[in-house]
C-alpha cells in the first residue's frame, strides 16, 4: 500500500518573519501610490506642480496637442489620453443593492459585560475600537432619494486588534426570505421594471407585490416595511439589527446563541408619510445631510450595542422560535437585550468615493469568539459578499484599500491579482515551506487563532426547509398587534397606497387574503381603501402570540434626549431682536441647532441684527423638529400669491397679514405633529396657517426662554401624537 504520509519539514517553533531583503534586491519605497508616507495628513498627494500619474511635470492641461492651432488632435498626446482615460473610468459599478449610502467614522467602547459570553478581545472592558459605519437604502440607485419607503442597511466595520469584524445588518430584524438562493429573485422583483426602468427606489409596483404575495415567508418583513420603520426620521434615530443568529464562544469554551441589536440614544423615530414625500422633492439627500451636519455640529450620533443571549441547544430553538429562520425575531419580553458597549460616530469621511463607496463589508469577517450559524440566508451571504467585490472593486485585493485595511498585522500568503498594493518579498508563498524559514507559521492555540466552533452536521442532501420554517403569519400578526393605534393606521395607509399602485387585480386580491389571515380589521381597512371585497384568509391556522411592546416606536410615557434636534425661530425685522437672540442661545444650550427664518436673507433689523439662516424661499417644514414663532412675517416681495408654488391661505386670512409660505410651513409642521411655541403678538401667523392656538402641542410663551422650555418638553416624545385621532 502506498504511503500517503506527507514529508516532514523542519520548522522553527516561532515565526521569524519574511527573510530580509538581500543586497542584490530592491523594492519600491513603502509610501502611498502617490508618494506620500502612509501616516501623512492632507490630500494624499505631494509637490507644488501638476504632474502626470507617473510624476512627469505638466506645463499645460488646458489645450490638447494639435497639428496646428486649427488642426486635428494628435494621438501621441499622452497627457490627454491619460487624463481622459482616467476620467472615463472614475466610476465603478454601483452596488446592486445598498447603492445609495452615507457613512461616518467612530469609536466603539466595550462595557466588558460580554466577558463571560465571548473571548472576542474588542468586547473586553473599556477596550476602544475604531469603526466605520455605512447606512444605506436597499432598492434605489446611487441617485435615488434618501427618504423612500425601504429597508435600510446598517453595516459596521470594527477595526479590532484581532482583525476586522463586520456586523452587516439592517434596520429591520427580519428578512424577506429564508434562503440565500432566493436573494436574486426578491431583489429583481423589487427593482424597477426591466422594460421601462421605473419606478425607482420603490416597492409600490406589481413585481414586488407579486413576489411577496407568492412567497408568504416575506409577509413579516413586508409588514415592518409598511410600518413607520420603512421611513426613518434620520440615520441617527434608526435601530440596527444583526438579523441572523450568531454563535459566541466564552473563555471556558461554552457557547451561546445571540442576536445583535443597535439601540439609538436618541430613540427610534420615523417620518410621517406626507413629510417623507415632501422631503424627497425638497432634499433627496436629507438623511446623509442630517448625519454629516450632526457630526459637524458636535451632536455625535450614539448607539448602544446589545445582545439577546439564548442557550446553544441541539435544536437551536428558543421558546418555540427557530433561531436559524431569518424571518423570525425573538421578542425582547422573552429574551431581554443585554447592553455590551457603546458606539459614537464622531468624524465624517474625507472623501466619499475612497471611503463610503469603496468600503467592502462581509459577514464572514469574523474574529475569535464570534462565529456564524447554519442560517441558510447567512450561508448564502458568506459567498455573495466576497464575490460581488471582485467586480465592483476590480479584483481580489479590495481589503488592501485604506478604508478596508485591517489595523493589525496581515501575513496571508495571497499574491498578485488586480489592484495588488503590497510589494512582497520572499520565495515561498505557500505552506509548508523550508525556503522562507517556514514563514508564516500556523498560529498556536494560546495565541488566539480563529477556530470554528465544532458543531455536529449530518443528514441527507436535500433542497428543503425545516418544518419549523413553515409558519409565516404568527409573528407578522405579533408585530402588527404590538404597534400603537397611530402606527397601525400608518400601516393600513401604507398597504393601501402600495397596493393601489399595482395594476394587476389578482396580486391585490392575493395580498389582501394574507392580510385577512394576519388581522381582519387591517384587511377590511385596506380593502375599503382599494374599493375591493375582503377575500377569504390564506389560512386560519395562525398562532396568537402575546404582544411585544418593545416593537412599537410610539411608547407612552417614554421620553428621549433632544440633543441634535433642529428648531426654527420665525421672525421679521420688526420682531423683538433680543427675544430672537435669547431663543437662539436657549436652543444651543440644550444641544439643539437653531435656524433663524425670515422673509429675506442677511440680518434681521439691520447689519448688526441676528444672522438669518433660512429664507422662506429656501426652506420647508421638513428641516425642523419644532418651531418657535417670535413674530409673523409679512408677505415678502418674492411672495407672488397664486404665482408662488408654495402660496396657500387655508384659513382665509388676507395674505397681507402673513407670508403665504410661512402659512404653508406652519400648517405642515402642525399636520406632521411637530411642536409649535409662539410669543405674544405672533398669533396672526398661526391664524393665517389655520392652526388653533388651543391645539395639542401648540403653546403660548411669555418669553423666548419659556418657549424653548416648552419645546424641549414636547420634543421629548418626538411628536405630538395626540393630533392624530386613530379609530377606536
From TrEMBL:
<keyword id="KW-0575">Peroxidase</keyword>
<keyword id="KW-0479">Metal-binding</keyword>
<feature type="binding site">
    <location>
        <position position="392"/>
    </location>
    <ligand>
        <name>heme</name>
    </ligand>
</feature>
<dbReference type="Pfam" id="PF18011">
    <property type="entry name" value="Catalase_C"/>
</dbReference>
<feature type="binding site">
    <location>
        <position position="381"/>
    </location>
    <ligand>
        <name>heme</name>
    </ligand>
</feature>
<dbReference type="GO" id="GO:0020037">
    <property type="term" value="F:heme binding"/>
</dbReference>
<dbReference type="InterPro" id="IPR020835">
    <property type="entry name" value="Catalase_sf"/>
</dbReference>
<dbReference type="GO" id="GO:0042744">
    <property type="term" value="P:hydrogen peroxide catabolic process"/>
</dbReference>
<feature type="region of interest" description="Disordered">
    <location>
        <begin position="1"/>
        <end position="70"/>
    </location>
</feature>
<keyword id="KW-0349">Heme</keyword>
<dbReference type="InterPro" id="IPR024708">
    <property type="entry name" value="Catalase_AS"/>
</dbReference>
<feature type="compositionally biased region" description="Low complexity">
    <location>
        <begin position="1"/>
        <end position="14"/>
    </location>
</feature>
<dbReference type="InterPro" id="IPR043156">
    <property type="entry name" value="Catalase_clade2_helical"/>
</dbReference>
<feature type="active site">
    <location>
        <position position="170"/>
    </location>
</feature>
<dbReference type="InterPro" id="IPR018028">
    <property type="entry name" value="Catalase"/>
</dbReference>
<dbReference type="GO" id="GO:0004096">
    <property type="term" value="F:catalase activity"/>
</dbReference>
<comment type="similarity">
    <text>Belongs to the catalase family. HPII subfamily.</text>
</comment>
<dbReference type="InterPro" id="IPR011614">
    <property type="entry name" value="Catalase_core"/>
</dbReference>
<feature type="cross-link" description="3'-histidyl-3-tyrosine (His-Tyr)">
    <location>
        <begin position="362"/>
        <end position="385"/>
    </location>
</feature>
<feature type="domain" description="Catalase core">
    <location>
        <begin position="51"/>
        <end position="439"/>
    </location>
</feature>
<dbReference type="InterPro" id="IPR024712">
    <property type="entry name" value="Catalase_clade2"/>
</dbReference>
<dbReference type="GO" id="GO:0005829">
    <property type="term" value="C:cytosol"/>
</dbReference>
<feature type="binding site">
    <location>
        <position position="95"/>
    </location>
    <ligand>
        <name>heme</name>
    </ligand>
</feature>
<dbReference type="InterPro" id="IPR029062">
    <property type="entry name" value="Class_I_gatase-like"/>
</dbReference>
<dbReference type="Pfam" id="PF00199">
    <property type="entry name" value="Catalase"/>
</dbReference>
<feature type="binding site">
    <location>
        <position position="183"/>
    </location>
    <ligand>
        <name>heme</name>
    </ligand>
</feature>
<feature type="binding site">
    <location>
        <position position="134"/>
    </location>
    <ligand>
        <name>heme</name>
    </ligand>
</feature>
<dbReference type="InterPro" id="IPR010582">
    <property type="entry name" value="Catalase_immune_responsive"/>
</dbReference>
<protein>
    <recommendedName>
        <fullName>Catalase</fullName>
        <ecNumber>1.11.1.6</ecNumber>
    </recommendedName>
</protein>
<dbReference type="GO" id="GO:0006979">
    <property type="term" value="P:response to oxidative stress"/>
</dbReference>
<dbReference type="InterPro" id="IPR002226">
    <property type="entry name" value="Catalase_haem_BS"/>
</dbReference>
<dbReference type="InterPro" id="IPR041399">
    <property type="entry name" value="Catalase_large_C"/>
</dbReference>
<keyword id="KW-0560">Oxidoreductase</keyword>
<feature type="binding site" description="axial binding residue">
    <location>
        <position position="385"/>
    </location>
    <ligand>
        <name>heme</name>
    </ligand>
</feature>
<feature type="active site">
    <location>
        <position position="98"/>
    </location>
</feature>
<dbReference type="GO" id="GO:0046872">
    <property type="term" value="F:metal ion binding"/>
</dbReference>
<dbReference type="Pfam" id="PF06628">
    <property type="entry name" value="Catalase-rel"/>
</dbReference>
<keyword id="KW-0408">Iron</keyword>
<keyword id="KW-0376">Hydrogen peroxide</keyword>
<comment type="function">
    <text>Decomposes hydrogen peroxide into water and oxygen; serves to protect cells from the toxic effects of hydrogen peroxide.</text>
</comment>
Amino acid at each position: 500500500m502506498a504511503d500517503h504520509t506527507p514529508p516532514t519539514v523542519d520548522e522553527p517553533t516561532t515565526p521569524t518573519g519574511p527573510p530580509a531583503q538581500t543586497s542584490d534586491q530592491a523594492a519600491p519605497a513603502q509610501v502611498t501610490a502617490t508618494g506620500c508616507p502612509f501616516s501623512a495628513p492632507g490630500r494624499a498627494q505631494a509637490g507644488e506642480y501638476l504632474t502626470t500619474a507617473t510624476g512627469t511635470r505638466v506645463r499645460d492641461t488646458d489645450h490638447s496637442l494639435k497639428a496646428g492651432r486649427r488642426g486635428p488632435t494628435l494621438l501621441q498626446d499622452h497627457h490627454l489620453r491619460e487624463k481622459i482615460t482616467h476620467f472615463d473610468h472614475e466610476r465603478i459599478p454601483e452596488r446592486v443593492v445598498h447603492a445609495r449610502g452615507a457613512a461616518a467614522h467612530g469609536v466603539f467602547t466595550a462595557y466588558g459585560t460580554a466577558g463571560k459570553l465571548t473571548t472576542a478581545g474588542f468586547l473586553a472592558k473599556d477596550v476602544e475600537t475604531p469603526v466605520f459605519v455605512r447606512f444605506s437604502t436597499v432598492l434605489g440607485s446611487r441617485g435615488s432619494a434618501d427618504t423612500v419607503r425601504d429597508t435600510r442597511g446598517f453595516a459596521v466595520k470594527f477595526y479590532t486588534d484581532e482583525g476586522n469584524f463586520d456586523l452587516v445588518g439592517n434596520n429591520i430584524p427580519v428578512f424577506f426570505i429564508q434562503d440565500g438562493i432566493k436573494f436574486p429573485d426578491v431583489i429583481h422583483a423589487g427593482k424597477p421594471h426591466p422594460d421601462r426602468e421605473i419606478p425607482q427606489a420603490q416597492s409600490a409596483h406589481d413585481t414586488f407585490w407579486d413576489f411577496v404575495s407568492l412567497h408568504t415567508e416575506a409577509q413579516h418583513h413586508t409588514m415592518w416595511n409598511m410600518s413607520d420603520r420603512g421611513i426613518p426620521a434620520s440615520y441617527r434615530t434608526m435601530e440596527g439589527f444583526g438579523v441572523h443568529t450568531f454563535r459566541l464562544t466564552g473563555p471556558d469554551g461554552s457557547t451561546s446563541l445571540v442576536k445583535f441589536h443597535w439601540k439609538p440614544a436618541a430613540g427610534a423615530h420615523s417620518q410621517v408619510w406626507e413629510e417623507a414625500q415632501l422631503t424627497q422633492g425638497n432634499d433627496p439627500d436629507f438623511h446623509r445631510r442630517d448625519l454629516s451636519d450632526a457630526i459637524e455640529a458636535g451632536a455625535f450620533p450614539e448607539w448602544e450595542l446589545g445582545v439577546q443571549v439564548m442557550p446553544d441547544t441541539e435544536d437551536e430553538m428558543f421558546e418555540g422560535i427557530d433561531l436559524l429562520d431569518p424571518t423570525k425575531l425573538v421578542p425582547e419580553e422573552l429574551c431581554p437585550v443585554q447592553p455590551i458597549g457603546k458606539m459614537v460616530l464622531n468624524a465624517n469621511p474625507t472623501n466619499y468615493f475612497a471611503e463610503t463607496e469603496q468600503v467592502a463589508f462581509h459577514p464572514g469577517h469574523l474574529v475569535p469568539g464570534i462565529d456564524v450559524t447554519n442560517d441558510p440566508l447567512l450561508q448564502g451571504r458568506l459567498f455573495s459578499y466576497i464575490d460581488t467585490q471582485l467586480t465592483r472593486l476590480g479584483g481580489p485585493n479590495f481589503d488592501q484599500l485604506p478604508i478596508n485595511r485591517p489595523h493589525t498585522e496581515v501575513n496571508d500568503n495571497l499574491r498578485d491579482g488586480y489592484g495588488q498594493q503590497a510589494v512582497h518579498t520572499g520565495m515561498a508563498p505557500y505552506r509548508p515551506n523550508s525556503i522562507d524559514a517556514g514563514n508564516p507559521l500556523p498560529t498556536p492555540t494560546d495565541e488566539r487563532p480563529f477556530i470554528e466552533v465544532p458543531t455536529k452536521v449530518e443528514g441527507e442532501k436535500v433542497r428543503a426547509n425545516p418544518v419549523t420554517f413553515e409558519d409565516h403569519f404568527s409573528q407578522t400578526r405579533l408585530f402588527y398587534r404590538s404597534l400603537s393605534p397611530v402606527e397601525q393606521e400608518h400601516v393600513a395607509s401604507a398597504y393601501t397606497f402600495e397596493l393601489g399602485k399595482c395594476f394587476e387585480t389578482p396580486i391585490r386580491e392575493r395580498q389582501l387574503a394574507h392580510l385577512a389571515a394576519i388581522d381582519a380589521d387591517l384587511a377590511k381597512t385596506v380593502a375599503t381603501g382599494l374599493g375591493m371585497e375582503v377575500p377569504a384568509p390564506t389560512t386560519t391556522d395562525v398562532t396568537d402570540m402575546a404582544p411585544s411592546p418593545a416593537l412599537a416606536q410610539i411608547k407612552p410615557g417614554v421620553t428621549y434626549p433632544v440633543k441634535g434636534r433642529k428648531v426654527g425661530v420665525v421672525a421679521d425685522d420688526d420682531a423683538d431682536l433680543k427675544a430672537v437672540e435669547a431663543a437662539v442661545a436657549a436652543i444651543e444650550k440644550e444641544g439643539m441647532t437653531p435656524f433663524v427664518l425670515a422673509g429675506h436673507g442677511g440680518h434681521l433689523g439691520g447689519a448688526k441684527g441676528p444672522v438669518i439662516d433660512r429664507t422662506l424661499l429656501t426652506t420647508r417644514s421638513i428641516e425642523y423638529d419644532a418651531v418657535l414663532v417670535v413674530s409673523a412675517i409679512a408677505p415678502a416681495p418674492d411672495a407672488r400669491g397664486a404665482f408662488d408654488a408654495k402660496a396657500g391661505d387655508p384659513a382665509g386670512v388676507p395674505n397681507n397679514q402673513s407670508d403665504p409660505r410661512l402659512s404653508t410651513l406652519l400648517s405642515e409642521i402642525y399636520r406632521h405633529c411637530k411642536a409649535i411655541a409662539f410669543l405674544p403678538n405672533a398669533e396672526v401667523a398661526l391664524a393665517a396657517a389655520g392652526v388653533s392656538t388651543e391645539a395639542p402641542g401648540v403653546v403660548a410663551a411669555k418669553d423666548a426662554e419659556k418657549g424653548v422650555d416648552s419645546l424641549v418638553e414636547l420634543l421629548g416624545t418626538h411628536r405630538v401624537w395626540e393630533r392624530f385621532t386613530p379609530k377606536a
